[in-house]
Design a protein that fits this description.
- The protein contains four helices and three strands, in the order αβββααα.
- By secondary structure, the protein is mainly alpha-helical.
- Strands 1-2-3 form a three-stranded antiparallel sheet, with no helix packed on it.
- The longest helix is centred in the C-terminal third of the chain and has 26 residues.
C-alpha cells in the first residue's frame, strides 16, 4: 500500500515512475536519488536523522555526539528553570526583560529537544529523559528548600 502511494505522489509531482528499491539502512533508491525513510515508531540504532539532514550520517561517533548534545541541552533546560540569575534588588523592568530572555532561551531549547525526539530514536529518548532527570535532581539537591527561582517550572 505504501509503495503504491509513494509512486502515485511521485507521478503527481513529475517524479520518476520506476519502482523504488529499498535497502537495509532505511533509505530508498529511486533512479539516482536517495530518499530517507522516516520512522513513525520507536526504534533502536544509530541510523537516524536527528535535527539536520544527513546528521549523524550513519556514523557511530556522530550518533554519540548527537546523544551527548541532546543530553547536555536537557540538563541546560533544567538548569535555566531552577537557577536564580536575577538578584532581588534588580530594577523591575530589567528583571522582567531578563526573565523574558531566559524564558525564550528555555522554550527554544525545549523545542529543540522535542524536535530531536521526533526522530523516534530510542537512544535520543533515553538521553533526553535522563538529562532532564539529572538536571532536575542536581538543581534541587543543592538548593535550600524554600528558595525562589526566576522562572516558574515548565508545565506539561
Amino acid at each position: 500500500m505504501r509503495r503504491e502511494q509513494l509512486l502515485k505522489v511521485m507521478d503527481m509531482h513529475g517524479g520518476m515512475s520506476m519502482a523504488p528499491k529499498s535497502s537495509t539502512n532505511g533509505t530508498m533508491m529511486m533512479g539516482r536519488h536517495k530518499m530517507m525513510m522516516m520512522h513513525m515508531t520507536f526504534f533502536w540504532g544509530k541510523d537516524s536523522l536527528i535535527l539536520f539532514d544527513g546528521f549523524p550520517s550513519h556514523n557511530t561517533a556522530y550518533y554519540v555526539l548527537a546523544l551527548f548534545m541532546v543530553f547536555t541541552v536537557s540538563i541546560l533546560i533544567e538548569f535555566i528553570s531552577h537557577t536564580r540569575f536575577i538578584k532581588p534588588d534588580t530594577n523591575p523592568m530589567v528583571a522582567h526583560l531578563l526573565q523574558t530572555l531566559l524564558h525564550v532561551l528555555r522554550v527554544g531549547l525545549a523545542y529543540l529537544v522535542m524536535l530531536a525526539l521526533m526522530s523516534f530514536n530510542g537512544g535520543v529518548f533515553l538521553v533526553a529523559v535522563l538529562g532532564h532527570a539529572l538536571g532536575f535532581f542536581s538543581c534541587r539537591a543543592f538548593k535550600e528548600p524554600h528558595q525562589r527561582f526566576d522562572l516558574p517550572p515548565m508545565a506539561c
